[in-house]
Structure formats: structure tokens, C-alpha cells
Amino acid sequence: MIQLTKLNDDTFTLNAIYIEQIQAFPDTTITLTNGKRIVVKDSEQAVVEKVMTFYQNVGLVSLTQTNEKEEG
User: Fold this and answer.
1) Which helix (H) or strand (E) holds 70?
2) Up-side HSE of residue 41: CA atoms within 13 Å toward CB?
3) Which UniProt keywords apply (predicted)?
4) What pLDDT, on the 0 to 100 scale, is given for residue 65?
5) What beta strand segments (E) does the chain contain?
6) DSSP character for 59?
7) Considering its fold, how many domains does the chain have in total?
8) What is the CATH classification number for the domain harbouring 46?
């Protein structure tokens, strides 16, 4: 789970497994696997970092895989 901030400054927790796409329009928009879209204050890069940390914590991706993607 990752904590994010809506445009009205309310914070919420999202299960990152349901994220399909993250885009900046310029506001960061997260599209979930069910098609729902959520606009957040967090930057696109901050959301990606939170998602990667979550994936590492639950064992979906290893630190080695993350480092290889950043180098390549």
C-alpha cells in the first residue's frame, strides 16, 4: 500500500498492485486496472518510487532488478 495526496490535500492509501498507468497531464493521474482514474498532488516520479518500494517490500521485484532498470 502507498500513501498519496489528493488535490484537496486529503491523504489516502492505495493498493499499488491495482495501478495500471501513471501519467502527468501536468497533474499526476493514476489509472487503475478497473479504469478508474485518480488525480494526485504527488509527482509522477514520487509515485513510481513509492510503487517500487512497495513492490520490493512485498517481494514482487528485487533490489537487483530495480538497479538494472535504472542503469539500462
Assistant:
1) helix 63-71
2) 10
3) Cell projection, Cilium, Flagellum
4) 55
5) 2-5, 11-14, 19-24, 28-32, 37-40
6) T
7) 1
8) 2.40.50
The parent domain of residue 54 ranges over 2-71
Q: What is the reported pTM?
A: 0.80
39 and 26 in contact (C-beta within 8 Å)? no
Helix, strand and coil content of the chain, in percent to the nearest 5, comes to 40, 35, 30
Report the pLDDT value the prediction gives residue 72, as an integer from 0 to 100.
Answer: 54
Longest CA–CA span in the chain (Å) reads 37
Helix, coil or strand: residue 45 = helix
Question: For residues 28 and 41, what is the distance between their CA atoms, to the nearest angstrom?
Answer: 7
